[in-house]
Amino acid sequence: MKQPASAPRGKPAAKAKRKSREDLNQEARDRKRDKKHSGHKSGSRANPETQTAGKGQGKKSQDPRLGSKTPVALVADGKTQTAKKPEAKPKPKAEKVRLTPQEELAKLENDERLDTLLDRLENGETLSGEDQAWLDQTLDRIDELMEMLGIALDDEAEDEQAEEDMMRLLKGN
Q: Per-residue pLDDT tens for 50-73?
């Protein structure tokens, strides 16, 4: 005959306590926090830390990045841009376009630099040596052109005529 199964001797078996949802959630958060901090810090691949050991000072540190470090030519064989410079072509002597005296005079009278320098002189400013030389040269050229064209600026004669005209008007009244 079979004997009935006897109960284990000692303490009665306690049931394993089931964990509550809050405990399970907290354990999961703790596991996630531990996992989050494992691994290398950011930028460790691009800027590897060099190990400073007493023995390895003379040895060059090894780059942890993968791939070949040999330089690659970006231009076809022997055709580098620095090796071949474009040759400077001699400029053909360009003949100056001769303007008629009227055109040259009109161009000089409409010159912005001439206008600004004359305005500065009228305001009492002093010009630099370079500006003064350019102004004198330009004004001389304008005088030459006006003589060639027969345009006479007889300021004195015009002033005298204007004064005579004024005197006649005053005497006549």
A: 655 555 555 566 666 777 778 888
Hey, is 163 helix, strand or coil? helix
Contact residues for 81 (Cβ-Cβ < 8 A; gap 6+): 75
The rounded distance, in Å, linking the Cα atoms of 101 and 107 is: 10
- DSSP-derived letter for residue 56 is G
pTM to 2 decimals? 0.35
Sign of CA dihedral 50, 54, 56, 59: positive
Residue 24: in which H helix or E strand, if any?
A: helix 21-36
CB-based contacts of 125-131 (< 8 A; 24+ apart in sequence): none
Whether the per-residue pLDDT at 165 is higher than 80: the answer is: no
| 20 confidence band (pLDDT: 50, 70, 90) | very high
Residue 105 has a CB neighbour count (10 Å cut-off) of 19
